[in-house]
Amino acid sequence: MEFRQAHAIYLQIADYLCEQILRKIFLAGAKIPSIRDLAIMVEVNPNTVVRTYNYLEEQGIIYKERGLGYFVAQDGHAKASALKKELFLREHLPEVFKNLTLLSMKFSDLQDFYKEYRDGLVLEESYEKK
What we know:
mainly alpha, two-stranded antiparallel ribbon
């Protein structure tokens, strides 16, 4: 995993896990990687993963079963979606609007690009399932 300089690493890992939940790689009730396994996978200190899991637990996206590990909450998908939407609206969309304004573009100018992107995602997801 490559980390961006401007954001806390634990939040980037949380974003990655939310994406995995939204892609239905981790379904409701599914066990997610242990702290140690995820730390090794993303090459960070286990304390960073602990901070990530605490954050996601506070958001109600995951829960801990003592002695068993962490699992996706029953409404984890909905809560992950709500969290990502909030972050998108607060952090990313203003940058998009700023660039549209600077480039004298209209939001409607993006429709074809968005359709092309969505079509590419559908193809990519169908290949991943094979």
